[in-house]
Amino acid sequence: MRKQIPAAVPALFRLQGTDGIRREVRPASSEEFKGLTPQQVFLERGCITEEFMELYAYAHVDQLIQKQEMLPGDSIVVGWDPRDVQGTYTNAVIRGIQKAKGRALVLGVVPTPLVPTYMLYKGAKGGFMITASHNPKDQNGIKTFLAYRGMKLLPDNDIELTQKILAVDHPSLKSTLCRVESEDCREEALELFRRFSLHPENTWISPEQTHSFKQTVVVVDPANGALSGIAAEVFRKAGFGRVVEINAKRDGNVNLYSGVADLEGHSTINAAMIDKKSGHFRKHKAVLKLFELGRKLKPQILNGEKRVAGAVFDADGDRFYRLEYDPFKDALLVLSGDETAFLQGMFLIAKDPKRYKNALYINTVESDLNAAVAARKLGLKAQLTAVGDKWILLRTAFLIAEARLKALKKSSRLSIPAPLERKWNAMRKQGTLNAHAFQEIEKAVDALEKKGKGEKQPDDTSRFLAFAVGSEETGHNITPGWLALENGSRMPVFFGNGLKSALNTFAATEFLFHGKSVRTYFSKIHKPFKPGFKETLYVYYIRKELFYKDSLIWKKVRRSILADARTANFKGSISRFPEDPDMLYVTLKSNTDERTAGVFVRNSGTENKISVNLRGDKKDARSLKKIGENAVRLLFEALKDSGDHYYKLELDVLSQMALEPVPDNRLILEKRSRTRLLTEMEKQHLIELTDKGYRLTSRGKWYITSQSHPQTNPIN
Questions:
Q1: Which residue in 457, 529, 503, 61 sits closest to 240, CA to CA?
Q2: What is the pLDDT of residues 271-329, one digit of tens each?
Q3: 611 CB contacts (<8 Å, ≥6 apart)?
Q4: Collapsing DSSP states into helix, strand and coil, what is residue 545?
Q5: What are 143-187's pLDDT values in tens digits?
Q6: What is the DSSP letter of 617?
Q7: Residues 195/217, Cβ–Cβ less than 8 Å
Q8: Are residues 466 and 425 in the same domain?
Q9: How many domains does the chain have?
Q10: CA-to-CA separations, 42 to 37, 221, 396, in angstroms, rounded
Q11: What is the band of 1 on the pLDDT scale with cuts at 50, 70, 90?
């Protein structure tokens, strides 16, 4: 996404990032926005107002009506996470739906996967989830779901919607009356989610496992978010012996010292990390509770009578990490999306090898490279895609359409019309990035099936669909689920669902490792595959619009990576991902053996940051770290936004630590920005907390010096 479009907007410009829109929220009445339209506030000031939320929802629904994909009065499902306590932004989205003549089916605070689930159940024409997911509480956004199998907007759809949004006349919209009443559907939707979550086809939990789960104590951390109260109830009904819920207040403090985001990059959490003075997780209540329970029950855990585990989610409930107390190490084992997805793949191939042999195991570039290698050894077919679970959904859309067309070809009563065959072949060749194109293909298939058999057949696609697991290292995992619709039929669904992933992971480990020795159990769940090297370096508060394919800084970082790779005895080449063309991905191959690595740089689609991602063999960790450090310093020099409020606060904090460590209680920093800023400075590895207080890291010392003596032109 490229910002700064004051007059003419490029035809391919998108407002949306990886998953919808997501920005810091500010009221439209703010003095700084006086005289600006909601679109200008978003583009020029980088903020979302309630007026922009209303406009965004209106534009999408009105566009669906104009394209005759819905009629006035048809339904749009809307839910949200609890960060907007006053309802300012959620009510704005509902107004936008109503002003566009849509009927809002209101779910209230619910997890993200329930929005497309209820949408398909009711046959609604679309869905909005109002959330900023794992982002801090001062941000919000919208995830948009399409009626076609609950897919998210793809780039072509983003561009089309962006053009519509920028064309809306806000004064006219402001004076438009709400045309259709909304409908409260919360209770029906929650009951649907409980049924879906507990159905054996979706949980994978057998009656025998229900009995064995009685020995497991589960600490549920919904990050003060949408799964508060919901996940814990499902775990209890699934048969877990004791369920302890932490961080479930729904008071707006989403992701605060809780949730999956703070676990990223950690494979274990040891006792030093919960030290009251300097421990990184000293304020994380769920982590502290797991240590408390684990130590208390240590004798029972060692003899196999008890287990103490954690199910950790993000604010909107579509991501999941698993924690487990290891009595041998007095530490918590952290299972990211890589480990949980691989365990799920192990389960599927062990449970039904005939069905899942050569089925797809799709993971994104963020994953450990060894996860794909291990998946192939299991008998799965590994594929790599760009960051974002919508790309996994795109692969499933291709698989579904292809499977249905193959089934038609096998039918003796039907033949596929040549125009349809040509259209499908063109889509496959071009790798279409338009969800509506798949919908048109499947509508044509529906018509052929009805013609050949008298009526549309029940959707049994997943029975012959060669798909096993879709995975993101950050905790978005997708496995097929089955949804019973309101009309009595059933259909397979493919959504990022943190609760389903959690239940599937527990079912998988119980099936695979039940009866193993206690020591074997812990070694197997912690390292289900041989891990490689994995590290991510961040730069926050940047001008993201400067980094894109073939821009000056893009080329400079590319040259740096390739030069450092040659020094480390690697041959580097650029790999292209059509889904994310501005990402710089360098594939490295060793000049001496078969080792490979990957270094990629990309703007976050959800936060104001950029990352340098290092993936490879542990033997190459030192070389990759050097490559990454040189690259990330170039990004610090070229991309930091001197006009950003947090950039200025960051420099002030660094200057306070320039001479000596500063105790937490002596740090001068505005209260409303404190937690977010310190967390993001630690993620950039500019500062670290010690017994004596916060101090500069080596990168922090370099950075503050570079700001004192900036280069004349850092991107030439």
A1: 503
A2: 999 999 999 999 999 999 999 999 999 999 999 999 999 999 999 999 999 999 999 99
A3: 536, 537, 538, 539, 601, 602, 604
A4: helix
A5: 999 999 999 999 999 999 999 999 999 999 999 999 899 999 999
A6: -
A7: no
A8: yes
A9: 4
A10: 9, 33, 33
A11: very low
Structural domain of 225: 192-335+500-526
**Could you give phi then psi for residue 640, rounded to 5 degrees?**
-55, 135
Instruction: Judge whether residue 453 has pLDDT over 80.
Output: no
Tell me: the pLDDT tens digits for 662-702?
A: 998 899 998 889 999 999 999 999 999 999 999 999 999 99
Supply the CATH number for residue 683's domain: 3.30.310.50
Residue type, 113: P
- By the 8 A CB rule, do 17 and 162 touch? no
- What was the pLDDT predicted at 5? 41
When pLDDT is cut at 50, 70 and 90, the band that residue 464 belongs to is low
Same domain, 570 and 704: yes
What is the pTM assigned to this prediction?
0.94
**Is 716 inside any structural domain?**
no
Phi and psi at residue 562, in whole multiples of 5°?
Answer: -65, -40
Q: CA-CA distance, 507 to 211, in Å (whole number)?
A: 12
Other CB atoms within 10 Å distance of the CB of residue 8: 7
From residue 338, alpha-carbon distances to 322, 350, 676 in Å are 11, 18, 27
User: 527 with 606: CB under 8 angstroms?
Assistant: no
Give the pairing type, strands 609-616 and 216-221: unpaired
Task: Quote the CA–CA distance of 444 and 450 in Å, as a whole number.
Answer: 10
Residue 4 domain flag: no
If asked whether residues 395 and 250 sit together in one domain, one would say no
β-strand partners of 615 = 534, 598
Using only C-alpha atoms, what is the Rg of the chain?
25
User: Is the distance from CB of 108 to CB of 82 less than 8 angstroms?
Assistant: no
Task: Report d(CA 706, CA 694) in Å as an integer.
Answer: 20
Q: CA–CA distance from 307 to each of 221, 243, 291, 497, 524 (Å)?
A: 17, 12, 12, 24, 14
Residue pointed to by tokens 């159990």: 521
710 falls in which pLDDT band (50, 70, 90)? low
C-alpha neighbours within 13 Å on the C-beta side of residue 42: 25
Q: Do 537 and 678 belong together in one domain? A: yes
What angle is formed at CA 476 by the lines to CA 311 and CA 185, rounded to 5 degrees?
80
Q: Are 251 and 224 in contact (CB under 8 A)?
A: yes
**Contact yes or no for 146/139 (Cβ under 8 A):** no
Residue 449 has pLDDT above 90, yes or no: no
CA 242 to chain CA centroid, Å, is: 29
What's the pLDDT tens digit per position in 593-623? 989 999 999 999 999 999 999 999 999 999 9
Helix-, strand-, coil-residue percentages of the chain, each rounded to 5 = 45, 20, 35
pLDDT at res. 410:
80
Q: Note whether 258 and 364 are same-domain residues.
A: no
Q: What tokens does 422 get?
A: 């040509």
How many beta carbons lie within 10 A of that of residue 435, not counting itself? 22
Residue 169 CA to residue 161 CA, distance in Å, equals 15
